[in-house]
Amino acid sequence: MAVRDHGLFRKLVTPAADTAHSGCYICNNVAGGVDTGVYIDYEGSLFLCTNCIKELAEVAGMSVDVEGEMHERELEYLHHENTSLTAELADARDQLDAFGIAVARAQAKGKH
Fold first, then answer.
1. What pairs with residue 2 in β-bridges?
2. Can you say whether the dihedral through the CA atoms of 60, 66, 72, 76 is positive or negative?
């Protein structure tokens, strides 16, 4: 087996023309998946469909759907929290600016 020079994974909608087995190396599926960047001599590039990748991940102990949904909820919460804190900071800055203006006016009146 030889490895392609770039060695990068590429997500593809359909298998590339040089794909071994003309589809997923495990199940022969021709749906979307990942070109692994590995070239199998006399066969072609090693391509795995997303279904097989998901099954492999689950067998390896990764809970793809549950973990992904948990991260999406956490991201949504953090985005909401960030928006809320950004608005709160802007309000605090406005109040601080107003206080600074009031102090400057009071100091100006005290000098006259």
1. 39
2. negative
Beta-bridge partners for 44: 40
* Structural domain boundaries, residue 72: 63-112
The structure tokens 């802007």 sit at: 90
**Residues 82, 42 share a domain:** no
- Predicted local confidence at residue 7, as pLDDT: 55
Q: In the predicted model, is pLDDT for residue 3 greater than 50? A: no
Contacts 24+ apart (CB under 8 A), 14-23: 15/47, 16/45, 16/47, 18/44, 18/45, 19/44, 19/45, 19/47, 20/44, 20/45, 20/46, 20/47, 21/47, 23/47, 23/49
pTM for this entry: 0.52
Do both 83 and 49 map to the same domain?
A: no
Q: Which of 28, 45, 62 is the last residue in one of the domains?
A: 62
